[in-house]
Design a protein that fits this description.
The chain is 25% helix and 27% strand. It is globular and about 70 Å long. A 7-stranded mixed beta sheet has the order 1-2-4-5-6-7-8. A 7-stranded mixed beta sheet has the order 9-10-11-12-14-15-16. Strands 3-13 form a two-stranded antiparallel ribbon. The mean pLDDT is 92. It has a single domain, classed as Ribonuclease Z/Hydroxyacylglutathione hydrolase-like (Metallo-beta-lactamase, Chain A). With 329 residues, the chain is of the alpha+beta class. The chain binds zinc ion. Zinc ion binds next to helix 4.
Length: 329
């Protein structure tokens, strides 16, 4: 068997050949392109539609957030230990990327968008704000959206309610949000806090123009048929996750209960500096992960690798592993 004979030495030899080519490029200048097409930087299509019971669920990408060395935003664990977890999962330790996976539900009578992405804001760079284009690619016209349901009022979730000109992106939608969350993130008084200021400004710009269209959501309430609010406080004061239900099949939308598919899953007790009450966020996360693993409930996580759909298995006391669901298109 040729494959069985493939050794580590062969692999190193191949790597060596690659190095030589790189060396030649550096010494002699770029090698003339031989391929019939240039390298392309086009982004992926960014939508995934699937049926869940009798409802259609879509995951639409708003792009991604480049965090650099994300370990610096974690607490309660050493940098070395976090590096070990990342390396064991073949992930770079200094280039954490968080996706922006937005769930859209069509329950047959209504279309709901769960969170809206960064919108026109470039607070996290150029790689966000793709929701409108990807909705269009998925065949969903923002004018046909009946409900915008917000998990919380952070910029990467509530930043896409208005466009760059301040015009409503979803002109015919009712906006659903937790009352305490809305009050905190639109409170003028919080503008004096330098750290919070850009977040407050963005929340005000997006939410205040929709004041007359806002309905407050409460835990346990069904917002539209098949979409129930699950209180998940900690990340923000009123952070809310959702449970989709159709034909007696549950599918959770965990929003920002955990931001990274390795660090917050293998070691869910670590704390995130973007969590408003990080101790409460840990309690919420442990409860949520336990429910998902025990009841084998699939879920969509907002910031996990595209499209963020998968399951959790318990691997030890307060330790889990994320199993991504293959995307069948
Ligand atoms: Zn987020």
């Amino acid at each position: 068997m040729k494959n069985a004979e493939f050794s580590r030495r062969d692999a190193l030899g191949l790597a060596g050949a690659g190095l030589s080519a790189a060396f030649a490029t550096r010494m002699l200048g770029p090698i003339p392109a031989q391929a019939k097409a240039p390298f392309t930087k086009t982004a992926h299509c960014g939508f995934y539609n699937f049926m869940h019971g009798d409802m259609q669920v879509s995951v639409i990408s708003d792009g991604f957030l480049p965090f650099g060395d994300g370990r610096k935003t974690m607490k309660e664990m050493s940098m070395e230990d976090m590096a070990k977890h990342l390396e064991a999962n073949f992930l770079p330790v200094d280039d954490m990327v968080l996706q922006e996976n937005i769930t859209v539900v069509n329950n047959g009578s209504k279309i709901a968008v769960l969170d809206t992405g960064m919108g026109a804001s470039k607070m996290f760079g150029e790689s966000t704000g793709r929701l409108p284009a990807n909705l269009k690619a998925a065949g969903i016209d923002p004018e046909n959206v009946d409900a915008v349901i917000l998990s919380h009022c952070h910029p990467d979730h509530a930043g896409g309610l208005v466009d760059a000109a301040g015009k409503s992106v979803f002109p015919n939608a009712q906006v659903y949000v937790n009352e305490a969350d809305l009050n905190f993130w639109t409170d003028e008084k919080n503008l004096s806090n330098e750290g919070l200021k850009p977040f407050i400004e963005l929340a005000r710009a997006n939410l205040l123009p929709h004041k007359d269209k806002i309905t407050f959501i409460k835990g346990g309430e069904e917002i539209i048929t098949g979409v129930t609010a699950l209180p998940a406080p900690g990340h923000t004061i009123g952070h809310t996750a959702f449970m989709l239900n159709s034909a007696n099949k549950p599918l959770a939308v965990t929003c920002d209960t955990g931001h990274h598919h390795v660090l917050f899953v293998e070691t869910p007790k670590i704390e995130f500096s973007y969590d408003m009450d990080s101790k409460q966020a840990v309690q919420t996360r442990l409860k949520m992960w336990d429910m998902l693993a025990t009841d084998r409930i699939p879920f969509i996580a907002f910031h996990f690798p595209w499209p963020g759909l998968g399951n959790l298995a318990k691997t030890g006391p307060d330790a889990y592993r994320f199993f991504q669901t293959p995307v069948n298109t």
